[in-house]
Design goal:
Strand content: 15-25%
Structural class: alpha+beta
Number of strands: 11
CATH architecture: 3-Layer(aba) Sandwich
Low-confidence stretches: 4-27, 32-54
Largest sheet: 5 strands, mixed
Helix content: 25-40%
Number of helices: 5
Oligomer: single chain
């Protein structure tokens, strides 16, 4: 079974409430969601799950909107050998600390077919609607960090991912078909640390 199994919306809504109640630090350690993660080391996970004889990726099919209200789907992955998905929260100090480095890496690795996509985890209200004040906070954080890459807002298709994120930031990689590459990483890294991981993932996708 893949790490990002399909989850019911109620689980994601409960997570969103918990996320909003947490407070983040300023170091590189992950912020617990909803409780302290057992380890900040990468967690080994299968690259994909087998369903009806076909390989299905964690992001093979999805729809969502970005921070600017634009509709986004799996086509955002096309033409990119590797997409780094960074799950973060507006309350999370380590998330915000690493974002300027991620913004630079997004630009520097573009010619190698790599992109970064953010997923903002804590912008839902208890009833599942978007909290526009938190969405605006996320826009401000991204702009102040120099982020130009797409940041997704939670959607029903992404609840399964969010329901299995226990610390922020959490980061995983997918290929152009949405199939997970490598492992899930919990916690922030500096620019050199993420560059080393990206290089390793590029070798894996070939």
């Amino acid at each position: 079974m893949t790490l990002f199994r399909k989850a019911i919306p109620a689980a994601a809504l409960a997570l969103a409430v918990t996320l909003s109640a947490c407070s983040g630090g300023t170091g590189s350690e992950p912020t617990a969601v909803p409780s302290a993660a057992p380890t900040a080391e990468p967690t080994a996970t299968p690259a994909a799950q087998e369903s009806a004889g076909q390989t299905t990726g964690v992001l093979s099919t999805f729809t969502a909107t970005d921070l600017d209200g634009n509709e986004v789907d799996q086509s955002i992955l096309e033409g990119h050998k590797l997409t780094m998905v960074n799950v973060w929260g507006t309350f999370c100090g380590p998330c915000k600390q690493e974002m300027p480095d991620l913004a630079q890496l997004h630009e520097e690795y573009a010619d190698q077919g790599v992109q970064i996509v953010g997923l903002v985890s804590d912008v839902l209200t208890q009833d599942g609607s978007l909290d526009e004040s938190l969405v605006e906070d996320a826009r401000t954080i991204a702009a102040e960090s120099g982020v130009t890459y797409t940041n997704l807002l939670p959607s029903q298709d992404l609840y399964g991912i969010l329901s299995q994120i226990y610390a922020l930031p959490s980061t995983f990689f997918v290929d152009e078909h949405g199939v997970q590459v490598g492992t899930l990483y919990m916690g922030a890294k500096d620019k050199d640390g993420w560059a080393a991981v990206i290089d390793e993932m590029l070798e894996e996708v070939g």
